[in-house]
Design a protein that fits this description.
12 helices, mainly alpha, about 280 residues
């Protein structure tokens, strides 16, 4: 009897597709994963409901409970002062879902399955962020509708109003990159749930979202005036109510671009190391 001879393995030299084709394939993968995330939300409408109901509660709470006790000197009164802050806060808090979703996918092995598939690795993060853009836009439009119902009005025209919403979405997506890194680095869903809002609360509440910075203690004003959420809200408020845009425009852009430049590479690195 002769021993079985194992088959000879031959390595195939598969040429790398051209760069343009690789970009098209990566874009198609990103669209497919974006549709996957949106389909998950459509099959779980309770998630969308609670994503929207929290900022709506904040609008009603600050408009009718706290608003009368917070004097402001802006056109339209406290409700016009409030809404840009609510939109910025809602965009920031909505990004928290990114961290939880990525940590859950890591725990359940979904990320491992994605990495084993013949898809562009970048499409996993880009698909998630693209879906978050759609979710943020929907959330902010609902909040704006509630704001109009309780008396908020734009005083600076349609173009600046659209730019204010775009800036709100940009803020949310920027914080999504931080949340993506947190979810991929921490990996445990329960730990992410505990830690996720710890760093968001100081940024949103120690800002000019709900009260003028001048009414805070002097030692707190230095942080509140110069942190990114306050600067972005100042720009959003100027777009809504009118006023000079140059100063806060470049500061907002610098903060958002800087945060993305730092945390996108960190999130990519954490994704590559995720197991």
């Amino acid at each position: 009897m002769t021993a079985a001879v194992p088959p000879t393995l031959v390595a195939l030299d598969i040429p790398m597709p051209p760069a343009r084709r690789r970009l098209r394939l990566a874009a198609a993968d990103t669209v497919a994963l974006t549709q996957r995330e949106i389909l998950i939300w459509l099959r779980n409408p309770v998630f969308i409901f609670f994503t929207v109901i929290q900022p709506v509660m904040f609008v009603l709470l600050f408009r009718y409970v706290f608003g009368g006790a917070i004097p402001v000197k802006v056109l339209g009164g406290y409700v016009d002062f409030l809404m840009p802050g609510i939109i910025a806060q809602s965009a920031a808090f909505a990004s928290f879902g990114t961290a939880i979703a990525l940590a859950r996918q890591l725990q359940k092995g979904v990320i491992d399955r994605f990495r084993a598939m013949p898809i562009a690795r970048s499409s996993v993060l880009l698909g998630r962020l693209s879906a978050d853009v759609a979710r943020l836009a929907l959330t902010l439009l609902v909040i704006l509708g509630v704001g109009y119902a309780v008396g908020f009005r734009f005083h600076n025209g349609v173009g600046p109003a659209v730019l204010m919403l775009v800036l709100g979405v940009a803020l949310g997506v920027t914080i999504c990159t931080v949340s993506a890194y947190v979810g991929l680095a921490v990996k445990d869903e329960e730990s992410v749930s505990s830690f996720g809002l710890v760093w968001l609360f100081p940024l949103t509440f120690v800002s000019n979202a709900f009260v003028p910075v001048q009414r805070m203690p002097g030692w707190l004003q230095a942080f509140a005036k110069n942190q990114p959420v306050t600067i972005v809200i100042d720009e959003m408020r100027t777009l809504a109510l009118g006023g000079p845009l140059v100063l806060h425009a470049w500061q907002s852009a610098a903060w958002l671009v800087g945060i993305v430049a730092v945390f996108v590479p960190l999130a990519v690195r954490a994704y590559r190391r995720a197991t």
